[in-house]
Amino acid sequence: MKLSFIGMGNMAYAILKGGCTAGFFDTNAVFAFDINQKRLTEVAAETGIHPCGSAAQAAEQADIVLLAVKPHIVPAVLEELGDTLQNKAVLSIASGWTTQRLQAALPAAARAMFTLPNTPCMVGAGMVLGEDNHTFTPAEFDFVNGMFHSMGKLILVPPAMMNGAGTVTGCGPAFFYLIMEALADGAVTFGVPRQMAYDLVAQTAMGAGKMLLDTQMHPGQLKDAVCSPGGTTIRGIRALEDAGVRAAMFDALDAAGKNA
Ligand SMILES: NC(=O)c1ccc[n+]([C@@H]2O[C@H](COP(=O)([O-])OP(=O)(O)OC[C@H]3O[C@@H](n4cnc5c(N)ncnc54)[C@H](OP(=O)(O)O)[C@@H]3O)[C@@H](O)[C@H]2O)c1
Fold first, then answer.
1. Average pLDDT over residues 33-42
2. For ligand 1, is residue 78 a contact (CB within 6 Å)?
3. Is residue 122 helix, strand or coil?
4. What is the CATH number of domain 3-157?
């Protein structure tokens, strides 16, 4: 399958980088157009993909066209591409450009799929959500499934779940970065050097995530196993509860999910 990126910004680059590192992409079969030709040239030189001079040139080459521009740019791109998308598979990662909305804007024979990746795709730890009402052929879906699994996980969900689940996976990394930065600040007050503090926090966060995934235990059970009676951890948990950390998580998701 030949893949063309329309837009080579932060998220497209994360997908490209993740897939290249995993050895998934045959970069000879990957094309891209970005309005910022300087950036595109740099990415092409780094990865070996084909840079294109227009969106139409990129789309013509492709079996699957990956729309990776900001949502408000999508209408102009679709209008410019017009019948070039006839019989293509169009993969949207643009927030709000759902399968249903995209399908309605495409030529009749084109197929549509909406996915929400996150930036950890770049390091092989992405969490990607895809709408289960996509109209891709089995071969097109196999490619997308293989691509995202090469850089993390892809889970298909009903369209109605995309907003809530996508807020967790899309915004979640930033929430965790804030918590990790704060934990590292705390470590520094104990005299831990700054870089070491970040390393300790990151490995600890990764370990906690892996424990949850690998054991499939309830997070409360895992927390209990770290909290010995009368011990230090339970005193820290008490401080977190006093600070309203649980309510803050509800509020953060609520605030972030509202305009999605
Ligand atoms: N970042 C994330 O974590 C994330 C997660 C999930 C989904 N997404 C979605 O991914 C899409 C891209 O987000 P991003 O964060 O990667 O944004 P970004 O870094 O701004 O990337 C968009 C790229 O598209 C270029 N562009 C603008 N107009 C164009 C046109 N007409 N044709 C081709 N390229 C054009 C931009 O160039 P200029 O900068 O010169 O305008 C920029 O290089 C968005 O729709 C967003 O909803 C992002």
1. 98
2. no
3. helix
4. 3.40.50.720
